[in-house]
Structure formats: structure tokens, C-alpha cells
């Protein structure tokens, strides 16, 4: 794998840390600003909304900028948002900082996926994407626990300054990308309308539907993992940190496995990971009552959930290969849309009195729905009901597929 992927992974590590670390620091933030925990929770939902909206907006704004240069601009925006969050004197400015940082999230992973895929041979594209997303998964193993510890011992503002520092390292690495990878001209004939035209491809829409439902299944469970583990499984509050580490380790392993096998057998990989995820989430309603079984299940959920990420992202890139940038970024927003949808549905079933394990059934249903979409997508493709994604996208840009380069 090219060294340039390391810079992308560092940026992904910083973004993943800032996205999730706030969940462990909500009490400290709420206390300092004098707001309730539910109000402080807007820092989570506001970030997710910023990702959903920022992915297409920032990608569109960057259509006239080279992809490597746009990645550096996005990392600069990420740094500015975290510095604002760290220094914000009011809750409103803190929320603004979170939203500013989130605007870089979707476009960074979307454009980064295209760049990563373009650095390697076609049969290694999913593996390259997985290497970049390894930074995101490692954030859950190292960055989030470390950031939570720093925030609880030295103050939450120090955590966001630390994350901003990670952004600086990532930006320096991305500056190196420009030297490691020769600058290539933008594909001739590719404009915003061509990027948008990729969404006429039914396969692109089906892949994004799989993203929303499949990864949403994961978040239906892990959003409420703290009350589930402390009130149902009987873990102490202090045990939540290492349980999240197990979840993160599962994510790392699943991401690498998904990237490895998606390059060989993409749709079978989705069938296995989504089907197994639905089964494990359903079983979690039972295993959540036993400490050992719960810990094992959490690791499996992380692994199976992130095993879907490289194949889903590669599926979108393949089906929109003539104009992949916007579709890739919007698919990152789809992950966060699934997160928000699943968290809301999980909260509904808990509020309805079904207990803290009820979101697992919601997650199982979402994962099973994603599996159904995968079957429909593959069936249409085999029957020829939907044209090959590369040919359709090439028609959209008015050129042959071989003339459209991914970087």
C-alpha cells in the first residue's frame, strides 16, 4: 500500500476521535455550561446532521479543486472547528464548533475513498479504502478512550485541543500526499451535473440504502450500550471504557477483513456480514444478560458492522465509477443518517417500555432489511435489469469508462 494512505488514515483517526469522544464527556460539558444532559446531547446529533448535510455541500464546493488540495482544505476546516469547540465560552459556540468540524467529515471520507482507490490496482481498491478507514476504527480503540481519560482528568477542553493537534498532523501528512502522488488533471468533461447524474443509477441508490440500514443496525445497539451493560448485564460504570475498546477492536478486525474479501467477492461478503449481523443483534437481546456473553457479542457487532464498510463504499464507487466523488461523499452521509435513524428508533422502543435490550431487535430488523436490498441489487445486476455502473456513469459524463480516472 502506498505511504500516502498513512496520511489519510491519520486524518480519519482524528475525525473518528472527535465524532465519538463527546459521548464520554457529556456530563463534564453539561456541567460547565449549565445545561442538561439531553441538551448537551445536541452536540452529538448536531455533529451527525452536519455530516449528512456537509458531505454533498462540501463535495460540490470542491468540484473545481483537485482532490488532494480539497482534502487539505477539509482538514483545515476540521482543525478550526475543534479549536473553536475547545475555546468556546458559550454552549452555542461549542455547538457551532462541532458543526464546523462535522462539515469536513463526509467529504473527507468520500473524497479520500476515491483517492485511496486510485492509488492502487483495481483489484486492491477495497483494501485501500479499508486501510484509510482503519484510522477511524483505531480511533475507537485508542483515540476515544484516551480522549475521554484526558477530558475527565484535565478538562474536556484539553481533549478538543488534542484532537485539533491530530488534525495538524494529518494536514502535514496530506501535504506530503501532494509530493508522494503526482498531481493529475481533473477528468475532462466531468462537472457537477455529471456527478449528480450518478444518482440516476438504481444500483447507486440501492447501495446507499444498504448503507443506511446496515450500519444503522449497529448504531441501534451501541448508542444505548452504556445503560444496557450497566443496568442489564450488571457491569460497573467503570467497565464501559474497556467494553468500548472491545467494540473498537472488533471494528478494526472487521474493517480489514471486509476490505480483504470485498476485493475478491464483494456481494457474497455483504451477504455474510449483513446476515450474520442481523443474527448477532437479535441474539444480543439474550446475551446482554450475561457479562461474558455480552462482551463477546459487542466485539462481534463491531466486527460484523465494520466488515460492511469497505464493500459498501466500494459498491458505490464501482456503480458510479465515471463520477464517483459526490456519490462516495453522500454515502458517508448515509452512514450517519443510518446512525441518527437507528438511535431515534432505539430511543422510541426504550421510551415505550420495552427495556434497554429492545434496540437490538430494531438493529436486527434494519440489518435484515439491508440484506434484502443486497439480494435485490445483486438479482437486478445478474438479470441485466440495471446496466453496469461504470457504463451508466460513463454515459452520464459522455465518455468511455477508460478515460475517466479515479484520482
Write a compact overview of the structure shown.
This protein is an all-alpha fold. It has helices at residues 4-20, 26-33, 37-40, 42-61, 67-87, 91-118, 125-154, 156-180, 192-197, 202-222, 225-233, 240-262, 266-287, 291-307, 309-319, 324-351, 358-383, 389-397. The radius of gyration is 20 Å and the shape is globular.
Structural write-up:
The protein is mostly helical and 407 residues long. Helices cover 80% and strands 0% of the residues. The chain contains 18 helices and no strands. The protein has helices spanning 4-20, 26-33, 37-40, 42-61, 67-87, 91-118, 125-154, 156-180, 192-197, 202-222, 225-233, 240-262, 266-287, 291-307, 309-319, 324-351, 358-383, 389-397. Helix 10 (202-222) packs antiparallel against helix 14, helix 10 (202-222) packs antiparallel against helix 15 (309-319) and helix 10 packs antiparallel against helix 17 (358-383). The protein is globular. Residues 386-407 have low confidence and may be disordered.
Provide key terms for this protein.
407 residues; mainly alpha; 0% strand; globular; disordered C terminus
Overall, the morphology is globular
Please provide the count of β strands.
Answer: 0
State the helical fraction: over 70%
Rounded to an integer in angstroms, the radius of gyration calculated over CA atoms is 20 Å
Q: What quaternary form is this?
A: single chain
Average pLDDT figure: 81
Mind summarizing the main beta sheet?
none
Distance, first to last CA: 16 Å
Structural class: mainly alpha
Amino acid at each position: 500500500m502506498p505511504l500516502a494512505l498513512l496520511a489519510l488514515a491519520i486524518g480519519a483517526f482524528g475525525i473518528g476521535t472527535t465524532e465519538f469522544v463527546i459521548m464520554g464527556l457529556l456530563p463534564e460539558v453539561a456541567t460547565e455550561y449549565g445545561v442538561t444532559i439531553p441538551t448537551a446531547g445536541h452536540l452529538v446529533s448536531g455533529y451527525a446532521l452536519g455530516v449528512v448535510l456537509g458531505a454533498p455541500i462540501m463535495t460540490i464546493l470542491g468540484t473545481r479543486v483537485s482532490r488532494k488540495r480539497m482534502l487539505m482544505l477539509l482538514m483545515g476546516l476540521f482543525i478550526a472547528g475543534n479549536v473553536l469547540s475547545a475555546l468556546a465560552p458559550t454552549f452555542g459556540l461549542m455547538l457551532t464548533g462541532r458543526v464546523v468540524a462535522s462539515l469536513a467529515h463526509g467529504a473527507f471520507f468520500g473524497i479520500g475513498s476515491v483517492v485511496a482507490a486510485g492509488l492502487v490496482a483495481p483489484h486492491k481498491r477495497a483494501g485501500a479504502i479499508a486501510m484509510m478507514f482503519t484510522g477511524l476504527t483505531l480511533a475507537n480503540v485508542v483515540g476515544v478512550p484516551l480522549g475521554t481519560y484526558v477530558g475527565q482528568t484535565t478538562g474536556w477542553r484539553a481533549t478538543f485541543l488534542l484532537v485539533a493537534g491530530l488534525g495538524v498532523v494529518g494536514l502535514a501528512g496530506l501535504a506530503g500526499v501532494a509530493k508522494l502522488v503526482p498531481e493529475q488533471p481533473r477528468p475532462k468533461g466531468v462537472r457537477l451535473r455529471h456527478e449528480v447524474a450518478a444518482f440516476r443509477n438504481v444500483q447507486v441508490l440501492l447501495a446507499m440504502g444498504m448503507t443506511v440500514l446496515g450500519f444503522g443496525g449497529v448504531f441501534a445497539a451501541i448508542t444505548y450500550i452504556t445503560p444496557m451493560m450497566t443496568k442489564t448485564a450488571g457491569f460497573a460504570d467503570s467497565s464501559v471504557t474497556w467494553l468500548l475498546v472491545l467494540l473498537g477492536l472488533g471494528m478494526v478486525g472487521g474493517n480489514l477483513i471486509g476490505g480483504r474479501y470485498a476485493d475478491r467477492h464483494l456481494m457474497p461478503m455483504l451477504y455474510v456480514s449483513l446476515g450474520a449481523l442481523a443474527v448477532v443483534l437479535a441474539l444480543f437481546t439474550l446475551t446482554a444478560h450475561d457479562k461474558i456473553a455480552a462482551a463477546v457479542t459487542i466485539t462481534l457487532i463491531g466486527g460484523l458492522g465494520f466488515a460492511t464498510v469497505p464493500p459498501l463504499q466500494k459498491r458505490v464507487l464501482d456503480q458510479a465509477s465515471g463520477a464517483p466523488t459526490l456519490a462516495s461523499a453522500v454515502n458517508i452521509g448515509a452512514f450517519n443518517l443510518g446512525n441518527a435513524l437507528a438511535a431515534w428508533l432505539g430511543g422510541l422502543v426504550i421510551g415505550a417500555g420495552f427495556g434497554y435490550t429492545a434496540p437490538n431487535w430494531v438493529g436486527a430488523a434494519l440489518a435484515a432489511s439491508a440484506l434484502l436490498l443486497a439480494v435485490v441489487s445483486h438479482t437486478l445486476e445478474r438479470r441485466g435489469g440495471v446496466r453496469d455502473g461504470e457504463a451508466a456513469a460513463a454515459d452520464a459524463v459522455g465518455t468511455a469508462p477508460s478515460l475517466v480516472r479515479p484520482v
